[in-house]
Each structure stands twice: as C-alpha cells, then as structure tokens.
Amino acid sequence: MDYSKLVDVYEQLNKTTKRLEKTHIISEFLKDVSIDDTEHVMLLLEGRVFPSYDSREIGVASRLMLKSLSTATGISVDKIENEWKKQGDLGLVAEIIVKTKKQETLHSAKLTIKKVVDNIRKLAELEGEGTVERKTQLIAELLTSAKPIESKYIVKTILGEMRIGVGEGVMRDAIVWAFFDKKIGIKYTQEMNDIEVEDREIYNKYLDEVQRAYDVSNEFAEVAKTARLKGIEGLKNMEMNVGIPIKVMLALKADTIEEAFETVGKPAAVEFKYDGFRIQGHKDEKGNIRLFTRRLEDVTKQFPDVAESVRRNVKGKIFIIDSEAVGYNRKTGRYMPFQNISQRIKRKYDIDKMSVDFPVELNVFDIIYYEGKSIINESFDKRRKLLEKIVRQEPKKIVLSRIKIVSEKKDVEKFFKDAVNAGNEGLMFKSLDSPYKPGARVGYMIKFKHIMETLDLAIVGAEWGEGKRSKWLSSYTIACVDDNGNFVEVGRVSTGLKEKKEEGLSFEEMTKLLKPLIINDKGKEVKVKPRVVIEVGYEEIQKSPTYESGFALRFPRVIGLRVEKGPNDASTLDYITKLYESQKKS
Ligand code: AMP
Description:
Elements: H1 3-14, H2 19-32, H3 35-45, H4 62-73, H5 77-87, H6 90-105, H7 113-125, H8 131-145, H9 148-159, H10 168-184, E1 186-189, E2 194-197, H11 200-217, H12 220-237, E3 250-253, H13 257-264, E4 268-273, E5 277-283, E6 289-292, H14 304-313, E7 319-327, H15 338-346, H16 351-357, E8 360-370, E9 373-374, H17 380-390, E10 398-400, E11 403-406, H18 409-421, E12 426-431, E13 441-448, E14 455-464, E15 473-481, E16 487-493, H19 507-514, E17 518-522, E18 525-528, E19 533-537, E20 540-543, E21 551-554, E22 557-561, H20 573-585
Parallel strand pairs: 3-13, 8-10
Antiparallel strand pairs: 1-2, 4-11, 4-12, 5-6, 5-7, 7-8, 8-9, 12-13, 14-15, 14-18, 14-19, 15-16, 17-18, 19-22, 20-21
Helix pairs in contact: 1-2, 2-10, 3-12, 4-6, 4-8, 5-6, 6-9, 7-8, 10-11, 10-12, 11-12
Adenosine monophosphate binds next to strand 4 and strand 13.
C-alpha cells in the first residue's frame, strides 16, 4: 500500500479532536489494508515502527535529521536550521523544503508503507563506525522519494514526535468497528458525531474481547490480524507469548482496613507493599530470561543480576512471574526508596558497576504462566502456592513477598506496623480466590498505604484549664521515645476527653492520674513524670520545628488510656519518621 494513503489518514485525524470521528476514520481505513500491511499500519498509527515493548531504538536526534534533510534536498544545514528556528518543528521544515525542492526536480517515485518501515527499522540496527553516514543515507533515501506532506510524517515518526491523538482506546474501538461492524450493526453519523449499535451488550462484549486480546499480546497488529482472519473466536483463543510482556494487573486503593476487606473478602491475603518497581520476569523454552517494567519496557540488559537470580532460583522451563524489585543499602541491608535505584532503569553503560552499587532484591508476588500454560484463571491462592514450591529464596537476591492470611483488623494493623518498620510503603490486600486480570485495575488487589495509625504516646506535661475546666489538667504534652530512650515531644492534645465521667475517659480521671506525677510547676504549666501512656489519633504527621522530635501531629485526639503500656513502650521516633515517609508516598 502507498504511504500516501496512510498520510491521508493522518491528515484527517489531525483535523478532528473527536474520539468517535477518529475511530471512524481509522476503522474505514483498516478495512482496506491488506493483511501484510496490517502490522506496519497499526504501528505507524501509534507513531512507531517497533512494538512498545521492543527495546530497539531508532536513535536519530535533531542534528542527524538536519543533516539528512540537507543531503536529501541539497539545501545547506544552516539554512534548514534557520527555517527550524522559525517553524519550531522539524516535520514542518521538512514539508516546506521538500516542497521547494520538488518543484525544481519534478522527481517523484511512489513510497510504500513497507519501504518506510523497513528503512526506519534499519536505523535501529546500525552500530559502530560510519553509523552517522549510513543513517543519513537511509533517511535521505526516504525523503527524496517522499511528497512534501509525506516527508513531514516521516520526519516526525523517526524523531518519535507523532502526536495524532490516537490512544489505545481508539485503536481498540477501531478494530471492533472495522472487523465486526456487520455482526454488531454499528452506524456512525458524522453530523451527530454519534454511533448507533443494534445491541449495546453485544457491542460491549466485542470491545472487552478485543481489549483482553490486547492486554495479553500488547500488539494491536496481532489483534487486528486475528480479528480479521479468525473473528471473535480467534480473539478468544489469543494467549500470551512468553518473551512478550503482558499488561500487569493494577491495584485499587482503600483508605481503611474495613474498606479493603469489603472489596477482597475475608479471609484475605495481605502482603508488604514494597517501594520499588515492578518487574515481569519471563523465561522462554530456550532458557532466555527477559525482564520488563510495568510500562513494558525491556530492562533485561540493565538488570543482569536480577536475570541471574530468576534463572538460578526459579524452578521451571517456561514461566512468567510478577514481582517488585527493591533497592537496598549494601552496607546496612536496609531497603532504599525507589528514587535511589530508579537510575538503573534507563542506564546504558557501567551496568555491572550499577548492580554492585545499587543492588536490588526481587520480591516475587505472582505467577501468570507456567510450563506452557497460562494460569491467570487459577485462584490467587493456588498461584501463590505454586510460587512457594518453585522459588528458592535467597535473601537480598530473590524472595517471596511477605504474606499473611488475615480476617481481623488487629492482625492487619500489626502486619502494617511490621511493613512500615521494615521500610515499606504499606500493605497490599489480595483476594484469595481471584484470577489475574492483565491490564485491569480491579478489586483483586488493593493497596493500603496509610492507616491512620494511632500512636502510643507518653504524657510529659500538662496545663490547667480555664473557666469551668480550671480544676482539671486539660491539655497534655505528648512525647515519643527516641533512639537513646529519651522522651521527645510531638505536640499537645486536649481533644477527646470528656467533661462528664459517664461519657468516657474524663478530664477529672486524667487529672487524678497526673497530679501525683507533677515534678515541676510553672504557673499553669506543669511537667509530669512520663508514666501515663495514651493512644492518640491524628489526621497527618507534619514536620515541625516547634517540637524537639521534629514532628507535630495535625488534629490530634485522645482515643484512650493505654493502661497496659509503660512509658518505654511508647511509639518510637523512628516509627513516626517511617509513618511520615510512607504518608508522603501515598
Ligand atoms: P501503586 O503504584 O501505588 O498503584 O501501587 C501498585 C504497585 O505496587 C504495583 O504495580 C507494584 O509495582 C507495587 N507492589 C509492591 N509490593 C507489591 C505486592 N506485594 N503485590 C503487588 N504489587 C506490589
């Protein structure tokens, strides 16, 4: 097919911002594209020549493009650069200068879609000496046969600057409209910018099926070809391919433990929520390991250490596992926040040094494919049991995510504390009988990052009240314990106590407890021996220069006495610091 046909489509797409109209334009076009051209067309519509998970890069920057334009047109680099300054867009510059040139030479060969893709793909393969020259030649070859408007899109595609507003949703819908319109009876009317379908339910089913096929294959080309050749049944049978990343399952969020349980049911699994980055690990039948990020970028080269752990410690010939890689400090062994290791993801050189300086531990939490079979429809419970059988844990290299099966709020709270204390972000709730849904943000996995975790704090001071409260100590200075066992203040609290005994913990009762502990009297202010520990709720932990701990509580309130706790059991400064950190991440 001629490239000019696709360029027509680009132009039409650029003229509208309406999603349905874009879908219509693409679907009509797809009906005319041959099977052989489908792959190229689908990629080019998304502005690329390789699938998103392919790590090959075209590697052409603006400088090289200027040179290629100059070679193709005979116009000097300086002149082109001037034009670029005026236009601000090299695609437009290409269109303008190729137009001038064409009038002079009248040369015109037809450019096919295949030729465009072939040449651009070759750019990614060149390496070593003479690369710049050869790249220039390949681009110039396309530009000399391109019409002005075609050169605009060629340049934009090579530079990765295509912006035609075609997202995944439009691509998915266009496939349904193109290949199933007769079955579903879809009618688009431009004037109304609306569609009519005979049966919405059936239409939605087709959309879901196409989406599912895309989620497991990550290639619209594959989905479009299958839809066209094998229909809906073909789509249903599309499965993931080891070596090609599949979309990861995403998590919903809950603000309270009750809310999380409501969604995932009881009992549920809770796991540490690690602050690292997602790694989908594949092992194919040849024993090759490939690693992909959540955005499906291939990072195998950047993480040879992780690949090696997967190879050595996961039993099985062919599999796909899901995990979180977490950085740790080699000296202290403690987890490090994601930012510290994020630089490894894009790194191209000194890879081995990076893996020594910024080691990561792989925390495996799911398995999607095993020994030739997709197991996404097995329950989480079963998938986890399988993982436990096949992963040989080696701390600081590869381990299973820490998990606990719980039904009680208090068990969750305890585990949350463990998670935060170990430097994690919080917890992940997982429903035990759920499947793995690629690409979906469903309630099978719930992130729970901040408990309004109460603190146990020692009362170290108090203040006599005013008016009718003047006989009571009614406001309390509260403190946590620092590393050296000292009490350091985190604020004052007066809310939560009652004026009448019958209503709960009263000012009177508290005054009775504190009075014998007074060690220092300064007007209305008293200092007390740290003996009484209270449970304190709050909205947020804030940094504050006012108190010696460096933190203050926003809207603190007394929840109750912690009679069973001595002052040394009060929350530690370290714990409060961690809660503050985890709060920042959520
Ligand atoms: P968020 O990025 O805040 O939406 O949280 C979801 C992310 O948490 C996932 O994509 C994983 O990268 C990460 N994560 C950390 N620990 C776990 C775990 N135990 N199970 C699932 N995902 C986890």
